[in-house]
Amino acid sequence: MRRATRYSQQGAVIVTVALLLLLLLGFVGFAMDFGRLFIVKSELQTAMDSCALAAAQELDLQPSAIDRARSAGLTAGNLNRVNFQSASWNGQGQLVNADITFRDTSYVSTSNPATAQYVQCQHVQPGVQMWLTRAMGAFSGDTANFPNTRNVMASAVATRAHGQTTCPIPVAAKPRAGGVAPDWGFVPGEWVTVITSQGTTPGGYIGWANLDGSTSASETQAEMNGKCGTRVNDILGTPGTKTTISEEWNYRFGIYKKLPDFATDPSYMRPDLSGYAYTDNNWPPNPASPNIRNAWNGTPYADPTGTAQNFSTKRGNFAACGTSVNNCESVLSVSLNSFQDVAASGSGSNSHGQWGTNRRIVTVPVTDSGNRVIDFMCMLMLQPLSIPMTDVQLEYLGNASLPSSPCSFSGMPGGAAGPLVPALVR
Fold first, then answer.
1. Complete edge-to-edge strand list for the sheet that includes strand 420-424
2. How many Å apart are CA 202 and CA 101, to the nearest integer?
3. 351 forms bridges with which residues in the sheet?
4. Which secondary structure element, helix H or strand E, spans residue 159, and what is its range?
5. Are residues 261 and 370 in the same domain?
6. Which of 15, 21, 265, 288 sits in a 20 to 30 Å window from 203, CA-based?
7. What's the pTM?
């Protein structure tokens, strides 16, 4: 009698263990499902953050701001890997234009580039595969409460804010005699020449300068390639061999020694949204004010084609410097002997529209007589660098701290003044 009781108790233990194992397997299954959702959510959030920061960089209140912001946001967001590091997001769909929306200073939806100050990137990633709930749905027949897949949503909002640091190009401007903030004696639309030696740059001109205070040529090249960290009160240096920066300068125009495949090498320096360049050949001076030309968004004084040639329009059309290096050289009367390829116009393969971003609207430090940074101005790079190097010009667009400034670059937000940098706010 006692033996039968003992055997029956052993059977009860087996049932209990089986039930506990089933329960534990259920917890493991839930952990795997929710773990998968968490990973996809984290990856997708990174993509939305990248999208919002890249798009906010373009919100300069200019007519093409929203188009440029969408292009930059799509490019940056879709370069991320989502759904267990899938480059194609497991074929479930990536960011599209409708996922990027804009708001004004009152946070009201807007499609007006003159009022858009915030950008929101929001995307729903559908079809994330489940394991346990799929099995439970099949077992119970209740696929409504236990679906095979789940959707994951992520959102990010960014705007532009004053930066503690910024990423100027390695040149410096000297104020004109008597010039004071915000323009330091310059006039918006004015073409300013970059001369060879920063140390002897007179007022009203720009000279090459190392932002870290050194004389290193490799540092000059790194700064032209986007190295950040310049602050007000930094002391700038005089660079060494300046020919080392010709590649980085000209890449911004979409002019390459060998045209890269950006899809397989996204780290390669991307071009601006337009490589269209300006000299007396295609943007003749105003006889009344030869130095003030306003290639950024003005009207040419003589335009044989009868079409708009300003940079805002060319950027909106993703125009290249030319159809080839030879064509670009002939139009601009420059020599590009060591360069072979030009990124294409439009939005096709390896084009300015497909891969371009804000590369030619640049921040330039303003320095005093002791080469100390006192402010920052916004300028447009007008021409590629000739080989061998000759004079090159930039157009003054205004103080970089103005809300309407087209300058917006990577840097650490949190400053009280100075260039505007992208910052996540939500």
1. 100-103, 118-129, 149-162, 420-424
2. 46
3. 344
4. strand 149-162
5. yes
6. 288
7. 0.69
Cβ(195)–Cβ(205) below 8 Å: yes
Quickly tell me which residue has 């650490």 as its tokens: 412
3-state class (DSSP) for residue 228: coil
Asked if 24 and 43 sit in the same domain, the reply is: yes
Is 166 within 8 Å of 228 (Cβ atoms)? yes
pLDDT of residue 239: 77
Residues 72 and 181 in one domain: no
Contact 206, 173 (CB under 8 A): yes
DSSP H helices in 94-184 = 132-140
Return d(Cα 152, Cα 44) in angstroms, integer: 8
Distance CA 243, CA 221 (A): 9
Q: Which domain holds residue 111?
A: 14-162
CA 60 to CA 327: how far, in whole Å?
31
**Do 26 and 133 meet the contact criterion of CB atoms below 8 Å apart?**
no
Confidence check: pLDDT of 37 > 60? yes
Q: Which of 162, 178, 211 corresponds to the end of one domain?
A: 162
Instruction: Provide the residue type at 377 as one letter.
Output: M
139 and 93 housed in the same domain: yes
Q: Which residue do the tokens 């040149």 mark?
A: 171
Give the whole-angstrom CA distance, residue 296 versus residue 389: 24
Q: Is the sign of the CA dihedral 296, 302, 304, 305 positive or negative?
A: positive
**Do 314 and 204 belong together in one domain?**
yes
pLDDT digits (tens, 9 = 90+) for 156-174: 999 988 888 888 999 999 9
Residue 426 covered by a domain:
no
Closest CA to 361 of 173, 78, 168: 168
Distances (CA, A) of 421 to 45, 165, 235, 363, 400: 20, 9, 22, 11, 10
